[in-house]
Protein backbone atom coordinates (compact mmCIF):
# COMPACT_ATOMS: atom_id res chain seq x y z
CA UNK A 1 0.00 0.00 0.00
CA UNK A 2 1.44 3.39 -1.02
CA UNK A 3 2.10 5.91 1.74
CA UNK A 4 0.81 9.48 1.48
CA UNK A 5 2.10 11.98 4.04
CA UNK A 6 0.14 15.21 4.38
CA UNK A 7 1.97 18.17 5.93
CA UNK A 8 -0.52 20.56 7.52
CA UNK A 9 -3.84 19.63 9.16
CA UNK A 10 -5.97 22.50 7.83
CA UNK A 11 -8.60 22.65 5.08
CA UNK A 12 -6.39 21.51 2.17
CA UNK A 13 -4.47 18.95 4.25
CA UNK A 14 -7.48 17.21 5.74
CA UNK A 15 -9.28 17.25 2.38
CA UNK A 16 -6.28 15.59 0.75
CA UNK A 17 -6.13 13.01 3.55
CA UNK A 18 -9.79 12.06 3.01
CA UNK A 19 -9.30 11.70 -0.75
CA UNK A 20 -6.02 9.81 -0.26
CA UNK A 21 -7.70 7.27 2.01
CA UNK A 22 -10.54 6.82 -0.47
CA UNK A 23 -7.97 6.18 -3.24
CA UNK A 24 -6.31 3.41 -1.20
CA UNK A 25 -3.29 5.20 0.26
CA UNK A 26 -2.02 4.67 3.77
CA UNK A 27 -2.33 8.29 4.99
CA UNK A 28 -0.41 10.07 7.75
CA UNK A 29 -1.12 13.74 8.60
CA UNK A 30 1.56 15.75 10.40
CA UNK A 31 1.19 19.33 11.68
CA UNK A 32 3.75 21.40 13.61
CA UNK A 33 0.87 23.36 15.21
CA UNK A 34 -2.20 22.11 17.02
CA UNK A 35 -4.91 20.72 14.72
CA UNK A 36 -8.29 22.37 15.31
CA UNK A 37 -11.15 20.30 16.77
CA UNK A 38 -13.15 20.64 13.55
CA UNK A 39 -10.41 18.90 11.52
CA UNK A 40 -9.54 16.34 14.22
CA UNK A 41 -13.14 15.13 14.09
CA UNK A 42 -12.87 14.53 10.34
CA UNK A 43 -9.56 12.64 10.71
CA UNK A 44 -10.94 10.47 13.52
CA UNK A 45 -14.16 9.82 11.60
CA UNK A 46 -12.13 8.52 8.63
CA UNK A 47 -9.69 6.65 10.91
CA UNK A 48 -6.73 8.60 9.53
CA UNK A 49 -3.45 8.51 11.46
CA UNK A 50 -2.21 11.98 12.53
CA UNK A 51 0.17 13.86 14.81
CA UNK A 52 0.26 17.49 15.98
CA UNK A 53 2.83 19.89 17.44
CA UNK A 54 5.64 17.88 15.82
CA UNK A 55 6.97 16.37 12.60
CA UNK A 56 8.16 12.77 13.13
CA UNK A 57 10.81 12.60 10.42
CA UNK A 58 11.17 8.83 10.49
CA UNK A 59 7.46 8.48 9.55
CA UNK A 60 7.52 11.37 7.06
CA UNK A 61 10.55 10.01 5.17
CA UNK A 62 8.73 6.69 4.64
CA UNK A 63 6.35 8.49 2.25
CA UNK A 64 5.93 7.59 -1.42
CA UNK A 65 4.27 10.98 -1.90
CA UNK A 66 4.02 14.15 0.20
CA UNK A 67 1.31 16.80 -0.06
CA UNK A 68 2.32 20.04 1.63
CA UNK A 69 -0.17 22.74 2.55
CA UNK A 70 0.30 26.04 0.68
CA UNK A 71 1.37 27.89 3.84
CA UNK A 72 4.62 25.89 4.14
CA UNK A 73 7.46 27.51 2.11
CA UNK A 74 9.64 25.37 -0.17
CA UNK A 75 12.72 26.66 1.65
CA UNK A 76 11.89 24.86 4.92
CA UNK A 77 14.57 22.27 5.76
CA UNK A 78 12.06 19.39 5.94
CA UNK A 79 10.87 20.09 2.37
CA UNK A 80 14.45 20.41 1.10
CA UNK A 81 15.35 17.09 2.77
CA UNK A 82 12.36 15.36 1.14
CA UNK A 83 13.43 16.65 -2.26
CA UNK A 84 17.00 15.45 -1.71
CA UNK A 85 15.58 12.00 -1.03
CA UNK A 86 13.62 12.24 -4.31
CA UNK A 87 10.27 11.99 -2.49
CA UNK A 88 7.76 13.96 -4.62
CA UNK A 89 6.23 16.98 -2.85
CA UNK A 90 3.02 18.25 -4.49
CA UNK A 91 0.06 20.54 -3.75
CA UNK A 92 -3.52 19.57 -2.93
CA UNK A 93 -4.60 20.85 -6.36
CA UNK A 94 -2.12 18.56 -8.12
CA UNK A 95 -3.20 15.54 -6.02
CA UNK A 96 -6.96 16.07 -6.39
CA UNK A 97 -6.69 16.86 -10.11
CA UNK A 98 -5.57 13.27 -10.78
CA UNK A 99 -8.89 11.91 -9.50
CA UNK A 100 -11.43 14.01 -11.39
CA UNK A 101 -12.41 14.37 -15.06
CA UNK A 102 -14.30 17.58 -14.32
CA UNK A 103 -13.89 20.71 -16.41
CA UNK A 104 -11.80 23.11 -14.35
CA UNK A 105 -11.83 26.91 -14.43
CA UNK A 106 -8.66 27.93 -12.60
CA UNK A 107 -8.32 31.56 -11.49
CA UNK A 108 -5.15 33.26 -10.32
CA UNK A 109 -3.81 36.79 -10.04
CA UNK A 110 -2.45 39.15 -7.40
CA UNK A 111 -5.84 40.80 -6.84
CA UNK A 112 -9.46 40.17 -7.71
CA UNK A 113 -9.23 36.39 -7.77
CA UNK A 114 -11.69 35.78 -4.91
CA UNK A 115 -14.34 38.11 -6.37
CA UNK A 116 -13.78 36.66 -9.85
CA UNK A 117 -13.98 33.09 -8.51
CA UNK A 118 -17.23 33.78 -6.62
CA UNK A 119 -18.67 35.61 -9.63
CA UNK A 120 -17.72 32.87 -12.12
CA UNK A 121 -19.22 30.23 -9.81
CA UNK A 122 -22.40 32.33 -9.46
CA UNK A 123 -22.71 32.67 -13.27
CA UNK A 124 -22.12 28.96 -13.95
CA UNK A 125 -24.43 27.74 -11.18
CA UNK A 126 -27.25 30.09 -12.22
CA UNK A 127 -26.55 29.09 -15.82
CA UNK A 128 -27.57 25.53 -14.94
CA UNK A 129 -24.15 23.86 -14.71
CA UNK A 130 -23.26 21.26 -12.08
CA UNK A 131 -20.43 23.17 -10.39
CA UNK A 132 -18.31 23.24 -7.22
CA UNK A 133 -16.09 26.02 -5.87
CA UNK A 134 -12.78 25.51 -4.08
CA UNK A 135 -9.02 26.01 -4.04
CA UNK A 136 -8.08 28.97 -1.92
CA UNK A 137 -11.73 29.51 -0.96
CA UNK A 138 -14.50 27.48 0.65
CA UNK A 139 -14.29 23.69 1.02
CA UNK A 140 -11.17 21.78 0.04
CA UNK A 141 -11.06 20.79 -3.65
CA UNK A 142 -9.69 17.34 -2.69
CA UNK A 143 -12.51 16.69 -0.22
CA UNK A 144 -15.10 17.65 -2.84
CA UNK A 145 -13.50 15.30 -5.37
CA UNK A 146 -13.71 12.54 -2.71
CA UNK A 147 -17.31 13.19 -1.73
CA UNK A 148 -19.26 15.13 -4.36
CA UNK A 149 -17.68 14.82 -7.85
CA UNK A 150 -19.09 17.88 -9.63
CA UNK A 151 -18.89 18.07 -13.44
CA UNK A 152 -17.22 21.50 -13.22
CA UNK A 153 -15.07 23.28 -10.63
CA UNK A 154 -14.17 26.93 -10.26
CA UNK A 155 -10.90 27.10 -8.32
CA UNK A 156 -9.15 30.11 -6.85
CA UNK A 157 -5.44 29.31 -7.15
CA UNK A 158 -2.69 31.14 -5.27
CA UNK A 159 0.89 31.17 -6.50
CA UNK A 160 1.75 28.86 -3.56
CA UNK A 161 -0.76 26.29 -4.81
CA UNK A 162 0.51 26.59 -8.38
CA UNK A 163 4.12 26.07 -7.22
CA UNK A 164 3.20 22.45 -6.44
CA UNK A 165 1.67 21.73 -9.86
CA UNK A 166 3.18 19.17 -12.27
CA UNK A 167 0.34 17.69 -14.37
CA UNK A 168 -2.74 19.63 -13.15
CA UNK A 169 -4.59 21.53 -15.87
CA UNK A 170 -7.38 24.09 -16.06
CA UNK A 171 -9.42 23.84 -19.26
CA UNK A 172 -10.09 27.54 -18.74
CA UNK A 173 -7.31 29.43 -16.94
CA UNK A 174 -7.60 33.04 -15.85
CA UNK A 175 -4.94 35.55 -14.79
CA UNK A 176 -6.67 38.66 -13.44
CA UNK A 177 -3.51 40.77 -13.03
CA UNK A 178 0.06 40.49 -11.71
CA UNK A 179 1.57 42.99 -9.29
CA UNK A 180 4.40 42.47 -6.77
CA UNK A 181 3.10 40.40 -3.82
CA UNK A 182 4.47 37.66 -1.53
CA UNK A 183 7.96 38.49 -2.81
CA UNK A 184 9.38 37.22 0.49
CA UNK A 185 8.54 33.69 -0.80
CA UNK A 186 10.22 34.31 -4.18
CA UNK A 187 13.68 35.60 -3.13
CA UNK A 188 12.38 39.14 -3.78
CA UNK A 189 12.56 38.32 -7.50
CA UNK A 190 9.42 39.51 -9.31
CA UNK A 191 10.10 37.30 -12.37
CA UNK A 192 9.96 34.16 -10.16
CA UNK A 193 6.55 35.27 -8.87
CA UNK A 194 5.31 35.92 -12.44
CA UNK A 195 6.55 32.48 -13.55
CA UNK A 196 4.67 30.95 -10.62
CA UNK A 197 1.38 32.55 -11.74
CA UNK A 198 1.92 31.36 -15.32
CA UNK A 199 2.21 27.74 -14.12
CA UNK A 200 -1.60 27.84 -14.45
CA UNK A 201 -1.08 27.55 -18.24
CA UNK A 202 1.82 25.07 -18.06
CA UNK A 203 -0.19 22.02 -19.15
CA UNK A 204 -2.71 23.71 -21.41
CA UNK A 205 -3.14 22.59 -25.04
CA UNK A 206 -4.64 24.34 -28.06
CA UNK A 207 -8.08 23.09 -26.93
CA UNK A 208 -7.80 25.06 -23.67
CA UNK A 209 -8.23 28.80 -23.01
CA UNK A 210 -6.24 31.46 -21.17
CA UNK A 211 -8.29 34.52 -20.18
CA UNK A 212 -6.11 37.48 -19.23
CA UNK A 213 -6.00 41.26 -18.79
CA UNK A 214 -4.63 42.69 -22.05
CA UNK A 215 -4.06 46.06 -20.29
CA UNK A 216 -1.62 44.48 -17.82
CA UNK A 217 1.88 45.08 -19.20
CA UNK A 218 3.44 42.45 -16.91
CA UNK A 219 1.15 39.77 -18.39
CA UNK A 220 1.42 40.85 -22.04
CA UNK A 221 5.22 41.19 -21.89
CA UNK A 222 5.56 37.74 -20.32
CA UNK A 223 3.29 36.17 -22.97
CA UNK A 224 5.38 37.68 -25.75
CA UNK A 225 8.53 36.10 -24.37
CA UNK A 226 6.96 32.86 -23.07
CA UNK A 227 4.19 31.82 -25.49
CA UNK A 228 1.56 29.37 -24.23
CA UNK A 229 -0.09 26.56 -26.18
CA UNK A 230 -3.67 27.53 -25.33
CA UNK A 231 -6.10 29.88 -27.10
CA UNK A 232 -5.61 33.43 -25.79
CA UNK A 233 -8.78 35.21 -24.67
CA UNK A 234 -7.97 38.83 -23.72
CA UNK A 235 -10.14 41.46 -22.02
CA UNK A 236 -9.50 45.20 -22.07
CA UNK A 237 -10.87 48.48 -20.76
CA UNK A 238 -8.82 50.51 -23.24
CA UNK A 239 -9.01 48.94 -26.69
CA UNK A 240 -11.51 47.29 -28.98
CA UNK A 241 -10.79 43.59 -29.54
CA UNK A 242 -11.75 41.26 -32.38
CA UNK A 243 -11.78 38.31 -29.97
CA UNK A 244 -12.38 38.60 -26.20
CA UNK A 245 -14.11 41.27 -24.10
CA UNK A 246 -13.81 45.04 -24.04
CA UNK A 247 -15.54 48.15 -22.74
CA UNK A 248 -17.16 50.70 -25.06
CA UNK A 249 -19.60 53.49 -24.09
CA UNK A 250 -20.46 51.83 -20.74
CA UNK A 251 -21.13 48.51 -22.46
CA UNK A 252 -19.20 45.30 -21.96
CA UNK A 253 -18.89 43.73 -25.41
CA UNK A 254 -17.96 40.07 -25.72
CA UNK A 255 -16.82 38.64 -29.04
CA UNK A 256 -16.26 34.90 -29.27
CA UNK A 257 -16.59 32.67 -32.34
CA UNK A 258 -18.43 35.14 -34.58
CA UNK A 259 -20.97 35.95 -31.86
CA UNK A 260 -21.30 39.31 -30.12
CA UNK A 261 -22.96 39.78 -26.71
CA UNK A 262 -23.45 43.25 -25.22
CA UNK A 263 -24.29 44.07 -21.59
CA UNK A 264 -24.56 47.55 -20.09
CA UNK A 265 -22.37 48.09 -17.00
CA UNK A 266 -25.46 49.31 -15.10
CA UNK A 267 -26.25 45.61 -14.52
CA UNK A 268 -23.10 45.22 -12.42
CA UNK A 269 -23.72 45.17 -8.68
CA UNK A 270 -19.99 45.46 -7.95
CA UNK A 271 -18.45 48.87 -8.53
CA UNK A 272 -15.05 50.17 -9.62
CA UNK A 273 -12.89 49.66 -12.72
CA UNK A 274 -11.23 46.55 -11.29
CA UNK A 275 -14.64 44.92 -10.81
CA UNK A 276 -15.61 45.66 -14.42
CA UNK A 277 -12.48 43.68 -15.36
CA UNK A 278 -13.40 40.87 -12.96
CA UNK A 279 -16.86 40.81 -14.57
CA UNK A 280 -15.41 40.60 -18.10
CA UNK A 281 -13.20 37.65 -17.13
CA UNK A 282 -16.12 35.79 -15.50
CA UNK A 283 -18.43 36.47 -18.44
CA UNK A 284 -15.82 35.14 -20.91
CA UNK A 285 -15.52 31.89 -18.93
CA UNK A 286 -19.31 31.53 -18.81
CA UNK A 287 -19.64 32.08 -22.55
CA UNK A 288 -16.89 29.53 -23.25
CA UNK A 289 -18.92 27.04 -21.18
CA UNK A 290 -22.10 27.82 -23.16
CA UNK A 291 -24.07 29.73 -20.50
CA UNK A 292 -26.96 31.64 -22.11
CA UNK A 293 -26.72 35.45 -22.44
CA UNK A 294 -29.96 36.05 -20.53
CA UNK A 295 -28.68 33.95 -17.60
CA UNK A 296 -25.41 35.93 -17.53
CA UNK A 297 -27.20 39.31 -17.44
CA UNK A 298 -29.57 38.10 -14.73
CA UNK A 299 -26.74 36.64 -12.60
CA UNK A 300 -24.66 39.81 -12.88
CA UNK A 301 -27.42 41.88 -11.31
CA UNK A 302 -27.92 39.45 -8.40
CA UNK A 303 -24.25 38.99 -7.37
CA UNK A 304 -23.43 40.11 -3.83
CA UNK A 305 -19.62 40.23 -3.80
CA UNK A 306 -17.09 38.77 -1.39
CA UNK A 307 -17.03 39.26 2.37
CA UNK A 308 -14.15 41.51 3.53
CA UNK A 309 -13.81 42.99 0.03
CA UNK A 310 -15.23 46.56 -0.06
CA UNK A 311 -18.05 45.26 2.13
CA UNK A 312 -20.46 47.94 3.36
CA UNK A 313 -20.85 47.40 7.10
CA UNK A 314 -23.06 50.18 8.54
CA UNK A 315 -23.80 53.87 8.43
CA UNK A 316 -23.32 55.48 11.86
CA UNK A 317 -24.25 59.16 12.30
CA UNK A 318 -24.00 59.67 8.54
CA UNK A 319 -20.55 58.01 8.29
CA UNK A 320 -20.19 54.90 6.09
CA UNK A 321 -17.95 52.10 7.41
CA UNK A 322 -16.41 49.81 4.77
CA UNK A 323 -14.57 46.53 5.46
CA UNK A 324 -11.86 45.80 2.88
CA UNK A 325 -9.78 43.59 5.19
CA UNK A 326 -8.99 41.29 2.26
CA UNK A 327 -6.77 44.05 0.80
CA UNK A 328 -3.47 42.51 1.92
CA UNK A 329 -1.30 44.32 -0.65
CA UNK A 330 -0.88 47.84 -2.02
CA UNK A 331 -2.61 47.14 -5.32
CA UNK A 332 -5.80 45.94 -3.62
CA UNK A 333 -5.85 49.09 -1.49
CA UNK A 334 -5.27 51.18 -4.63
CA UNK A 335 -8.55 49.77 -6.03
CA UNK A 336 -10.36 50.49 -2.77
CA UNK A 337 -9.20 54.11 -2.56
CA UNK A 338 -10.02 54.59 -6.24
CA UNK A 339 -13.65 53.67 -5.46
CA UNK A 340 -14.00 56.25 -2.64
CA UNK A 341 -16.09 59.31 -3.58
CA UNK A 342 -16.19 60.97 -0.14
CA UNK A 343 -13.51 62.21 2.31
CA UNK A 344 -11.99 59.06 3.79
CA UNK A 345 -10.52 58.04 7.13
CA UNK A 346 -8.21 55.22 6.09
CA UNK A 347 -7.30 52.38 8.49
CA UNK A 348 -4.05 50.80 7.25
CA UNK A 349 -1.18 48.59 8.45
CA UNK A 350 -0.15 45.11 9.56
CA UNK A 351 2.66 42.85 8.41
CA UNK A 352 4.36 44.57 5.48
CA UNK A 353 5.42 42.15 2.70
CA UNK A 354 7.92 44.58 1.19
CA UNK A 355 5.29 47.19 0.24
CA UNK A 356 6.00 50.28 -1.83
CA UNK A 357 3.34 52.77 -0.75
CA UNK A 358 4.41 55.46 -3.23
CA UNK A 359 1.86 54.27 -5.81
CA UNK A 360 -0.87 55.33 -3.38
CA UNK A 361 0.35 58.91 -2.87
CA UNK A 362 -1.83 60.61 -5.54
CA UNK A 363 -5.00 58.84 -4.33
CA UNK A 364 -4.21 59.49 -0.66
CA UNK A 365 -3.56 63.16 -1.38
CA UNK A 366 -6.91 63.44 -3.17
CA UNK A 367 -9.16 61.35 -0.94
CA UNK A 368 -7.77 60.70 2.55
CA UNK A 369 -8.36 63.17 5.39
CA UNK A 370 -6.81 61.05 8.18
CA UNK A 371 -4.83 57.82 8.55
CA UNK A 372 -5.34 55.39 11.42
CA UNK A 373 -2.50 52.85 11.69
CA UNK A 374 -3.36 49.29 12.70
CA UNK A 375 -0.12 47.36 13.07
CA UNK A 376 2.79 46.72 15.40
CA UNK A 377 5.27 48.56 13.18
CA UNK A 378 3.83 51.56 11.33
CA UNK A 379 7.02 53.55 10.67
CA UNK A 380 7.04 53.04 6.90
CA UNK A 381 3.42 54.21 6.60
CA UNK A 382 4.14 57.29 8.73
CA UNK A 383 7.30 58.13 6.74
CA UNK A 384 5.48 57.82 3.40
CA UNK A 385 2.35 59.82 4.19
CA UNK A 386 3.26 62.35 6.90
CA UNK A 387 3.73 65.14 4.35
CA UNK A 388 0.45 64.35 2.59
CA UNK A 389 -2.01 63.74 5.45
CA UNK A 390 -2.19 66.02 8.49
CA UNK A 391 -3.60 63.47 10.93
CA UNK A 392 -1.90 60.09 11.46
CA UNK A 393 -2.82 58.12 14.59
CA UNK A 394 -1.39 54.77 15.79
CA UNK A 395 -3.74 52.23 17.40
CA UNK A 396 -3.28 48.76 18.90
CA UNK A 397 -6.37 46.85 17.77
CA UNK A 398 -9.57 46.91 15.71
CA UNK A 399 -11.74 48.35 18.48
CA UNK A 400 -9.40 51.25 19.19
CA UNK A 401 -8.95 51.93 15.46
CA UNK A 402 -12.72 52.15 14.98
CA UNK A 403 -13.19 54.42 18.02
CA UNK A 404 -10.47 56.80 16.83
CA UNK A 405 -11.89 56.80 13.28
CA UNK A 406 -15.35 57.54 14.66
CA UNK A 407 -13.96 60.65 16.39
CA UNK A 408 -12.16 61.81 13.23
CA UNK A 409 -15.05 61.31 10.80
CA UNK A 410 -17.96 63.69 10.23
CA UNK A 411 -21.26 63.24 8.40
CA UNK A 412 -20.86 62.00 4.77
CA UNK A 413 -17.28 60.79 5.41
CA UNK A 414 -16.18 57.18 4.87
CA UNK A 415 -14.16 55.05 7.28
CA UNK A 416 -12.29 52.49 5.17
CA UNK A 417 -10.42 49.48 6.57
CA UNK A 418 -8.06 48.61 3.70
CA UNK A 419 -4.81 47.50 5.36
CA UNK A 420 -2.52 46.87 2.34
CA UNK A 421 -0.74 44.39 4.64
CA UNK A 422 -1.04 40.86 6.01
CA UNK A 423 -2.80 40.51 9.35
CA UNK A 424 -0.64 38.12 11.34
CA UNK A 425 0.76 40.64 13.84
CA UNK A 426 -2.54 41.36 15.64
CA UNK A 427 -5.04 38.91 14.12
CA UNK A 428 -5.36 35.25 13.10
CA UNK A 429 -6.01 36.17 9.45
CA UNK A 430 -7.72 38.81 7.32
CA UNK A 431 -11.17 37.30 8.07
CA UNK A 432 -10.55 37.68 11.81
CA UNK A 433 -9.40 41.27 11.24
CA UNK A 434 -12.53 42.02 9.17
CA UNK A 435 -14.87 40.45 11.72
CA UNK A 436 -13.30 42.36 14.62
CA UNK A 437 -13.66 45.58 12.61
CA UNK A 438 -17.34 44.86 11.93
CA UNK A 439 -18.01 44.02 15.58
CA UNK A 440 -16.34 47.26 16.67
CA UNK A 441 -18.46 49.27 14.20
CA UNK A 442 -21.66 47.62 15.45
CA UNK A 443 -20.56 48.49 18.99
CA UNK A 444 -20.34 52.26 18.34
From TrEMBL:
Positions bound to ATP: 109-115
GO molecular function, one term: ATP binding
Compartment(s) where it occurs, according to its Swiss-Prot or TrEMBL record: Cytoplasm
Domain of life: Bacteria
Segments forming domain Mur ligase central: 107-285
A Pfam family hit: Mur_ligase_M
Reported function: Cell wall formation. Catalyzes the addition of glutamate to the nucleotide precursor UDP-N-acetylmuramoyl-L-alanine (UMA).
Protein name from the UniProt record: UDP-N-acetylmuramoylalanine--D-glutamate ligase
Amino acid sequence: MKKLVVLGGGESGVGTAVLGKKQGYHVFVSDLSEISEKYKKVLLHHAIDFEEKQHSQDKIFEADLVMKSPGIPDKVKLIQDLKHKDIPVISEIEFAGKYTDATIVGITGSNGKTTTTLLTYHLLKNGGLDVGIGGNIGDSFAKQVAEKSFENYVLELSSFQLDGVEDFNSHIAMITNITPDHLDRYDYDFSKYIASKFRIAKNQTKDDFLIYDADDKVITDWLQNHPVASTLVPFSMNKELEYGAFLKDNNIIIRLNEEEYIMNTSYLTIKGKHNTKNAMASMLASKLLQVRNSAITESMSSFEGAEHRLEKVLKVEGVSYINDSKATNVNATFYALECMDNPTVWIVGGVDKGNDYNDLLPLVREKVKAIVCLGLDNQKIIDTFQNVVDIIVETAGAEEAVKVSHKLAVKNDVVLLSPACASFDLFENYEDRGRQFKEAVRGL
